Amino acid sequence: MPSRPPDSPRITTAPARDDRDRAWLATLTVLYVEDDATTRALLARYLRRRVGRLVEAEDGAAGARRFLEDRPAIVITDIQMPGLDGLGMASAIRRIDPVVPILVTTAFEQVDYLRRAIEVGVDEYVTKPIDVDKLEAALLACARRLRAEALFAAEREAEVEGIRAHEREALGLLAGGMAHDFNNLLQAVIGNLSLAVPLATPGTELREILDEAAKAADLTVELGARLRTLADGGFAAFRTESLAPVLSAALAGALAGSRTTLRLDLPADLPDVAHDPELLRRAFAQLAQNAREAMIDAGQLSVQGELCAFGDGEAPRPLGAGRYVQLSFRDTGPGIAKEILPRVFDPYFSTKERGGVRGMGLGLALCAAIVRKHHGACTAASTPGEGAVFTVLLPTSPDPA
After folding, report:
1. Phi then psi dihedrals of residue 358, to 5 deg
2. How do residues 125-170 score in pLDDT, each as one tens digit?
3. What are the two backbone dihedrals, phi and then psi, of residue 96, each rounded to the nearest 5 degrees?
4. Dihedral of alpha carbons 29, 74, 155, 172, sign
5. Exposure pattern of 360-396 as b/e (b: 16+ CB <10 Å)?
6. What distance in Å separates the CA atoms of residue 396 and residue 376, rounded to the nearest whole number?
7. CA–centroid distance for 371 within its chain
8. CA 324, CA 328: separation in Å to the nearest integer?
9. Is the pLDDT at 397 greater than 70, yes or no?
C-alpha cells in the first residue's frame, strides 16, 4: 500500500473538541481541597486561569461545607488530610449530589485508597507530583461530560417545548371552534331569558329560577371569552408605554377586600414595553388572584420588576436573545408540590374544587397564553413550605404584533 505523502493534510476533530471543552471549563465553578498550603497556592494559581470560579478549602470538613454553599460543578481533592480525609468528604458529597465529577490527587497509589476511590465513585485520579498536562486532561474529561449532559438537557427541553407548542396549537384550534359554536347556541338562551325575566313577577319562584338561569348564562359568557383568549391570546391592540399603570390597577383590583399585603418594587427607569393594557391587566390580575387564594387571603405578595438581558442560548425557552422586562410575583403561601409544578399552566388543571368559573383550571393557562401573545414567557418555581414565584418576561423590542 502506498504511503501517504508527507505534505498530505491530517484530519482530526480533537483540537476543536478540546477548545469547546476548555471554553466550557472556563464557565464552571470548581472546588479545590488541599491541606498543604504551599501546594494549594501553587495549583490554585494554575486553576484560576482555566476555570470560571475557584473555591478553596483546607480540609475535608471545610470542603464539605463549601460544597453545600457554592455547589461547584467539579471537585478536586487531596486524599490524605487531617480529620475528614478526601475520600470521606467525597462520600459525603456523593450523598448530596450523586453525579458531580470528583477528581482526587494523591502521592500514594495503595490498593486500599484505590478501592475506596472506586466505592465512592471518583471520576478521575491524578498522582503527585502533579503533571499539569494530566491534570488538564482530567479536567477536560470532566468538562466534556458536563457539556454533553447540558447539550442533551437542552435538546430534551427543546423537544418538550416543541411538543407543548404543538399541543397548545391543537388546543387553541379546538377552543376557538368551541367558543364560536358555544356562543351561537348561548345567544338564543340569553335572548330568551331577557324576554322571560321581565314577564315573571319579582319574588315568585319562577322569577328566582329565571334569575339563577341568567346568572349561569353570564358565567357561561365569561367562559366563552376565556376560551377565545385561550385560542389565540385574545385580540391585541399594542401600544408602547410603561407597565406601571396596568400592573398597579391589576394588583389593586385582585387584592381588594383581602388581608393580603402588597410589596411592589418597580424601578422608575424600567423600559416601556409594547403591550395590550387590557390583556396584560387580566394576566397580572390572575397571578395576583392565584397568590391571594394560595395564601387564603392572609399573606404577602411581593412583585418586583427589573431589566434583564440574555445572550444566545441563555434565554428561557422559547425566548431568544435580547432585553426583557422581568416581573416576579412571589407569595408567602404553602408553595406548589414538585409533582404539580410542571402542570400549573396546563388548561383545565386545577387543585381547587370546581364550580362556576372558579376552579376550572383556565386562569394560569390564560395568563400564559396572553404572555405568549406578547412574545414573552411565563414560568413558575416553588419550594414547598416557602411560597411560589411566578415570573413574567416581556421583550422590550418594538411592537410584536
Report:
1. -65, 130
2. 788 888 888 899 999 999 999 988 888 876 776 666 666 666 656 5
3. -90, -45
4. negative
5. bbbbbbbbbbbbebbbbbbbbebeeeebbbbbbbbbb
6. 10
7. 15
8. 12
9. no
